Amino acid sequence: WGIAGDDIEELGVKLGEGSFGVVSKVVDRVTNRLLAIKHLPLKPDPEFRTGIARELRFMFRCQSPFIVKFLGAYFVDGMVTFCMEYMTAGSLRDVYLAGGAMDQKAIKLVAKSVLEALHYLQSRDIMHRDIKPDNILCGFNGEVKVSDLGISVHLSDETGAAAAVGTLNYVAPESIGAGDGAADHPHAADIWALGITLVELAVGRYPYPLEDVDEVETRNGPRTRGIPPPSLDAFGHLDYLESGTPRLPAARFSPACRAFVSLMLERDPQRRPTPGDLLRHEFLYDLDLPSLHRHMAKVVQRACPAKFDELLADKAEHPRRYAP
Ligand code: ATP
Ligand code: MG
């Protein structure tokens, strides 16, 4: 699968830990470049292995500047190891927890990048199904990319694609029984999850339980540290959804930006716009991607200064690891 286990040199650096496995930073001995690898335990059942093999085949085919590059995988001792592009600043969750509420330009770049990724996936009949700040990675150069296509499925391969999977916090109303249309508009669930994610990044807190964001920010200013999201059961999540729809604070976000995010949080999946529709929204007119990347670079460097210094030191010591 593109890479052999022997080619990987462990550096003993753990980048994070998800619900299924650990992610670490390693060097590919063949190219001398940095990679991130994710170890997952394999279920002994052969059907699961076939499932993974199919998954890998399509991950290999997903090539987009807005999707974390999948580089290969290998199986050792009942574990599967995925190799992917190393994203120097980690996830947007890491960034907002450290740096607090993000501004409109950062939100614009995240929206544009994730929508381009979803648009690309949708053209191949793929849903992501796990859009959340943890699965959007970013580099100190300001690049933002979607990762973890792991639980996404090929709609044509699988029935029940619209069933609720993934972290409950980002599950759309229709997928949890608070509305109809899940089966007819499966892709709409990714857009809901993006809407919640954008509000979370913009206010520095998972937006439920609802708060009066305007009042909170008038009193204290925008959060300078993020608050980690609660973990919810299905009933808690339903109660939250029924309590209303989150929105962006009016003082820091333009009417076009607020309208754009509200469209993603439209309850009726049939009326929720597609990635293509949203990419044509006036909020994203005339955007200058390089300038948004430069802005995001400053945002992440300010949020995670120690990690950035570490990167600069490592770059000085091992320039080849970072050669383009
Ligand atoms: P889930 O298991 O539901 O996907 P998660 O996204 O938190 O949850 P992982 O995908 O295992 O879990 O990732 C854990 C953390 O590791 C991420 O939040 C991120 O900080 C870091 N990470 C993951 N992939 C990379 C990568 N390619 N480059 C740099 N850091 C990464
Ligand atoms: Mg993940």
Automatic annotation (TrEMBL):
It comes from the Eukaryota. ATP binds at residue 43. This is mitogen-activated protein kinase kinase. The chain holds residues 519 to 842 of 890 of the full protein. The lineage of its organism: Eukaryota, Apusozoa, Apusomonadida, Apusomonadidae, Thecamonas. Belongs to the protein kinase superfamily. STE Ser/Thr protein kinase family. MAP kinase kinase subfamily. Residues 9-284 form the Protein kinase domain.
